[in-house]
């Protein structure tokens, strides 16, 4: 009996799936304060040069990190932000309100890979770099002056809206599951070629790293 139990213990690592958690270092290099947000993770005010570290559980899907701008949040953690607001809370419990530049991730998925991207599907508010800190060479960056060059129809306070937010049609929102690039999505793609520009922009915008990789998200790289 004892030998059987010993054999089971020895084989256990071969039977159970490997779990990899990830650490995300979130850095504000902007010349202004941002209120960093993460799902999962919550939120934190970051003045220029400050860093926030979060640990994300293995196999997390639907993860996001973004910056909120123009916030007025009181000592109880309630208020509002011009961009990226998450129901008026400092500690976000839901995704932010567009426009907001997104670092998106799903950890330890198919073939033990992390899937990462920068998305402009919810518009743009702050330049961003989303890079692995080890175990993977490929990072993603969107640092163009999208707000300064934003088409008039998409301009809003503190950011540049994605056309779906403005026009709410299938052409821009892909609600039927079938859509193509548009002049507006091409505007985003031309300035940030690595970033998602519309919901079906998968082939040029999704990147992978081995599960167990840690990451750094930099605002205003």
UniProtKB/TrEMBL annotation:
PROSITE patterns assigned to the protein according to its UniProt record, in alphabetical order: THAUMATIN_1, THAUMATIN_2
Pfam families given in the database record: Thaumatin
Keywords assigned: Disulfide bond, Signal
Name of this protein: Thaumatin-like protein
Disulphide bonds in the chain: 30-220, 71-81, 86-92, 142-192, 150-160, 164-173, 174-179
Gene this protein is translated from: LOC120261780
Organism: Dioscorea cayennensis subsp. rotundata
CDD domains tied to this protein: TLP-P
Signal sequence, start to end: 1-21
Presence of the UniProt keyword Disulfide bond in the record: yes
Keyword Cell division among record annotations: no
Protein family (similarity comment): Belongs to the thaumatin family.
